[in-house]
From TrEMBL:
GO biological process: alanyl-tRNA aminoacylation
Cofactor names: Zn(2+)
Binding site for substrate: 447
Keyword Ribosomal protein among UniProt keywords: no
Species of origin: Oikopleura dioica
Residues forming the catalytic site: 474
Molecular function terms from GO: alanine-tRNA ligase activity; ATP binding; metal ion binding; Ser-tRNA(Ala) deacylase activity
UniProtKB keywords: Metal-binding, Zinc
Keyword Transmembrane helix: no
Name of the molecule in the record: Threonyl/alanyl tRNA synthetase SAD domain-containing protein
Length: 544
């Protein structure tokens, strides 16, 4: 079956259409559940989401009334129009598609076909694995990384095809013989029909989307930049009106930069380089000052700390004109023999001189000093104490802290990924530890998401993996998990989603979420492997 939007993609309005069905319900739209009316029509010019192309929006009108169509989706062979107002069944209506949105979508879609076809030519031999039509710019994922020179050649060839006004046509194949002749890798029992989009002399590809009738309608294609990711190549692009918008936006940014730096456009790189040099000098000076601050605070601690009072707080007797020093102090507590200090805003250049100047507390009072710095889940640690005690416990401390470093001469020094959770936010650690890292369904193929749980007051965070076979949308998985996590006092944010294919022996993590985006699947794969050591776990970025 082919909809009118596929047969006549330039049709903006359509009259004398009847409503076959209208029912109230809910739908997940842009990760939010909304109440709407699902309407089926006898014919439609609204394209339902598919083939990487978003669904259309627009308006349905009857008499003096109208209903907004905010999205169109596919359910089986039906195009379902999601509307804000009920339309009685049997009503004759007129349709009006949001043409600016439709033409932009079909321009980017046809542009993607052209770009992918050129990259697949023997000269480049880079096949397209997936693509994404974004709000401002789109990308294709290629089977291999590509060079700047290759990208420029492909861009030139694409625009040459546009200047030649290359024809784009759609063919509907029905017979098995035609299907075998026109398309590759079809199953033996495939019955059709299917749509094949032809770009004359360049490409022939199965596709359900809407396309321009001539490449000249694209006006131009600009390949923006490319990235290398896990052995694949990501190429960003814009087509048609987006080229003009990107040029205008870039020009506005360039002009604003010129005003800020009082220079011409061609002088911007040089000015930025000069600023970077100045910034490096300022950072070096700041590190020196922070080092001096560590020494100063340590001296104040030596003088003012009340050794005989456990859990006391250090505040040196600063003068009123030294508020900066006073405000820079954080709580330093003495719990029995262990003195603890954490500075999330400073680095090792502060801790090293601070630790060196506290040697007397170690030597005279037999104290153990535990110092750390850093934000989120990465930081530096210094542990100073009796040489025998440190030597005996050093490896165990690093193991507990999930740290890497060395033990030498009464000192443990290294980097830790769990500074906050292990020592400085015990209550929060208990909350996060109560949340399983992995909770997924048993055998099957289903949607999964990665959720970042964090404490708003301390920036402690943990990424958890959740997968549910009953979820129709990635947002459904979040709806299931979010209330319980928030009840624990955790801040919850979905950082991406995909799919899980799980058997009795293997598990594969792949794909992406249209609403939440594609996360780092290696994180999910590692977590699942730790939770299910008996499985062979793999991951990739392919598919949907």
């Amino acid at each position: 079956m082919a909809w009118r939007c596929q047969i006549e993609p330039y049709l903006k309005t359509l009259q004398n259409v009847n409503v076959k069905h209208c029912s109230a319900g809910s739908y997940k739209f842009k990760n939010k559940k909304i109440e709407c009316f699902k309407i089926l029509l006898t014919e439609t010019i609204f394209f339902p989401e598919g083939g990487g192309q978003p669904g259309d929006n627009g308006k349905i009108t009857w008499g003096d009334d109208s209903s907004s169509v905010f999205y169109t989706v596919r359910e089986g062979e039906n195009a379902v129009h999601l509307c804000d107002k009920q339309v009685p069944e049997g009503t004759e209506v007129s349709l009006e598609v949001d043409w600016d949105s439709r033409f932009d979508n079909m321009s980017q879609h046809s542009g993607q076909h052209l770009i992918s076809a050129i990259f697949e030519q023997p000269e480049f031999n880079a096949s397209t694995i997936s693509w994404n039509l974004g709000d401002d710019k789109s990308f294709i994922e290629l089977s291999r990384p590509v060079t700047d020179e290759e990208v420029q050649r492909v861009e030139n060839m694409c625009n040459e095809a546009i200047r030649k006004r290359t024809r784009v046509s759609v063919e509907l194949l029905t017979s098995k013989e035609d299907l075998r002749k026109g398309c590759k890798d079809l199953p033996k029992d495939f019955a059709g029909p299917i749509r094949v989009v032809n770009i004359d002399g360049i490409d022939q590809n199965m596709c359900c989307g809407t396309h321009v009738e001539s490449l000249s309608d694209l006006q131009a294609i600009k390949l923006l930049h490319q990235e290398k990711k896990k052995g694949k190549g990501i190429v960003w692009f814009v087509c048609g009106q987006r080229v003009l918008k990107t040029l205008a936006d870039s020009w506005n940014v360039s002009r604003e930069a010129c005003k800020k730096m009082s220079c011409k456009e061609e002088e911007i790189p040089e000015r930025i380089e000069n600023l970077q040099v100045s910034n490096r000098g300022a950072l070096k000076a700041t590190k020196n000052l922070v080092s001096e601050l560590g020494s100063t605070l340590a001296e104040a601690l030596q003088t003012k700390f009340k050794i005989e009072k456990p859990e006391s707080t250090v505040l040196p007797d600063c003068k009123k004109d030294n508020e900066q020093l006073k405000n820079s102090l954080r709580d330093i507590t003495l719990d029995g023999k262990v003195l603890k200090l954490h500075r999330p805003d400073l680095g090792p250049e502060f801790l090293a001189p601070f630790a060196d100047n506290l040697a007397q507390l170690v030597e005279k009072e037999g104290k153990i000093i535990f110092l750390s710095c850093g934000r989120e889940n990465v930081g530096n640690i210094y542990v100073i104490g009796d040489e025998e005690i440190i030597k005996a416990s050093g490896k165990q401390v690093l193991e507990i802290m999930d740290g890497k470093g060395f033990v030498k001469g009464g000192r443990i020094q290294g980097k830790s990924s769990i500074v906050f959770r292990r020592f400085f936010h015990t209550a929060m650690s208990k909350k996060l530890d109560a949340v399983p890292t992995v909770k997924i369904d048993d055998i099957g193929v289903y949607k999964y998401i990665q959720i970042k749980c964090s404490d708003p007051s301390s920036n402690i965070s943990k990424i958890i993996i959740r997968g549910c076979e009953q979820a129709d949308y990635h947002a459904d998985v979040l709806d299931i998990e979010q209330p319980g996590l928030e009840a624990l006092g955790l801040k919850v944010r979905c950082i991406g989603g995909g799919r899980i294919r799980k058997t009795a022996k293997e598990c594969t993590v792949y794909g992406y979420s249209i609403g939440f985006g594609r996360p780092d699947h290696s994180i999910a794969a590692q977590a699942i492997q730790e939770a299910f050591p008996e499985l062979q776990v793999d991951w990739n970025d392919e598919g949907y």
